[in-house]
Amino acid sequence: MSYKAFITKISLRPHPNADRLQLATVLGEQVVVGLGMTDNEWVVYFPENGKLSSEYCQENDLFPRFNEAGERINAGYIDPDNRRVRAQNFRGEKSYGLVMPLSSLTYTAVALTDLILSAEREERNGSYFGFTEINGQPVCEKYIRYTRGQGTPGKPGKKQDAELGGAFPLYPDTDNLYHQKPKSLPQLPVVVTEKLHGTSARYGYVPKVYTGWRGWFSRLIDRWLKRDSYQYVVFPRRTIVENNTVGYYGSESWRIEGFNGWKHKLNRGEVVYGELVGYLPDGRPIMTPHDAGQVKSDKAFVQRAKRYDKPIVYHYGCKPGEHKFFVYRIDQNGQALSFDQMTKRCDELGLEPVPLLQKIDITGLALVEWAKLTSEGESTLATHPREGICIRFDAPTGVKVFKAKSHNFLIMEGVATEQEVSLEDLA
Questions:
Q1: Beta strand residue intervals within 108-152, DSSP E
Q2: CATH architecture type of domain 161-413
Q3: pTM over 0.70
Q4: Which one in 60, 223, 394, 395 has a CA-CA gap of 20 to 30 Å to 418?
């Protein structure tokens, strides 16, 4: 899943509870900023769940500094250990990310006018100018949370994705719906599915790729023995899983066991993408449990949480030791099936597609506002919160999917926080 910072303009309005703060709208999100910002100004926007580079933080004095007496001597509030960008509360108003002046990038020796020209060009094309580095210098990246003790990390399998010559492509990044220009969204009917909280998986029946002298020799042997030139392959991310593969969860053989029951039904060149949810064979949850007590401001959620397990385990109806595989995309020879075609193919394979919530015919800003409401609530599969929704457009040119995560889920995940933070020192 990708992460980018964006060059764009902001729209400002007063903060209702703080004279020295303002509310900015940027890429459809609300961000709290200081009085130093002006309306319609070009800025750098870092969405939540990003990680700033150490260089960017140091150049812009974003780390807190203290004197010998332990007193704060600057306004820096970025944690130097993880440099994470979160959604936070500032005087009762949510702030989804971080807005910085365009001048914060001058240390990269980039011409700020060039950045503005690039941003204007992208906006004319109906998108935003996003980046992770400027002039070869890292600025930000996606924040990846590593949870200790959940698995037994080891050496991954040696066979890598690249060995398949692109015949087994990664699933395209699912962009955040809220970071799109509403007017640029496809004017097409929308398929809305539940976003499931699990680990991604890919299964395929793809051509063998023969490289080097060993590949040449293997090709000869396969031809001589009249062996299949296609192979069944299992990928969680970039490494082929085999029975002896060790990864984040320890042994990864559990990913293969379920595949053996239906792989013979795959066509040549067919790849199935989906989400594995529930539990590992030893009873551990696939995903880290959440604490519903972290959400306090949403009264409806607090009421529902009384029925949730403590902690919340995203089991989706699985019993300890069980897991399920839900399909969200199927490619046949590089072409993605429409949602209806995918659902039909799932029936033929004996698989379950991700839960369909609704098919609607709205787009633009109305779709974005509708998604913010629909992303909340409970899972359709079990009594626990919904991670969010996926907005899918089946266009003649291909499939495009956007994600809209629940804000309450982001709070429990640690991406957002309800902890009040003071920005008054920035004024």
A1: 129-131, 133-134, 137-138, 140-142
A2: 2-Layer Sandwich (3.30)
A3: yes
A4: 60
